[in-house]
Every structure is written in structure tokens, then in C-alpha cells.
Amino acid sequence: MGHDQLFKAVLEKFFRDFLELFFPKVAKRLDFRTLVFLDKELFADLPQGPTREVDVVARLETHEGELELVLVHVEVQSRPEKDFARRMFEYSALLWLRDRAPIFPVVLYLQGGKGPTDEEWELSLFGRELFRFRYASVGLAGLRAEEYVETRPLGVALAAPP
Description:
About 30% of the residues lie in helices and about 35% in strands. By secondary structure, the protein is an alpha/beta fold.
């Protein structure tokens, strides 16, 4: 099992811990009793277009205010790449078209990245911004293990130097 596949399995097993560790405000709003992992296959162009596969996508209900279904999409990436932000946008657009639910998109960089932060992709035409897409990111290389010693064991494990 390669690193990417291993981290996908870890994310599914410790999904709640991952969100509570890095995105506590988001996790607090989610009802983890309703957690369901969804099919990862997305169709880019029906009926015969290519398929795309996301790494981890979960559906949960919120438990604050009005009941709502949301998706949490986590993509495991070796390191930051040119054009990755566009790909994250495409995944979110395809998930929206398939499930019609708000999406909290996250990338987990195994190498590189800046710890927990936000990234974005912008589409412009003739110098005018048409669309700005934002997503959360966690760069394991930017984490300091000593900051996570008093928290969940997952934080220490993810922040440990390679």
C-alpha cells in the first residue's frame, strides 16, 4: 500500500479526529452520527465522458440551526503542484453537480505545504475576476509535533518528522 493509499485509509478511520484537530469550528457544527462515506467516482461529461475519482468524500448532517446535509471532501496530495488548485475546483464542481450539497474542500499535503492554511484558485477573463474558489489545506511538513503533544494522538503522528 503506497503512502497516498495509506493516508486515505487513515483519514477514513480517523475522519472525526482529523476535522476536530485541524478544523474544530467546522467539526463542531457536524453531526458525526450521520457520517456516510460516498462513492468516490465522478463523471466529468455524461454519458460517455471520462471519470474522475476523489480521495475521500463524506456526507454529514449539521446539528446547529436548520438541518442541512454537507459534504466534506479531502484530497491527499504528495506535495503542492501547479494546476492542483484548478483540479480541486473541478472536483468540487463535480461533487456539487452530483450531490447538490455545500462542500467543505480540504487538501492534505504529505510533503510541503504550510501547516493549516487556505488556498484558492481564480478564473478571470479580460482582467475581470469571474470566480474565486477557496479551500482549506494542511501541509504536514509545516506542522510542529510539539504543538500537538497535548492533543489527540493523530496530531502527533501527522506532525512527526519523516
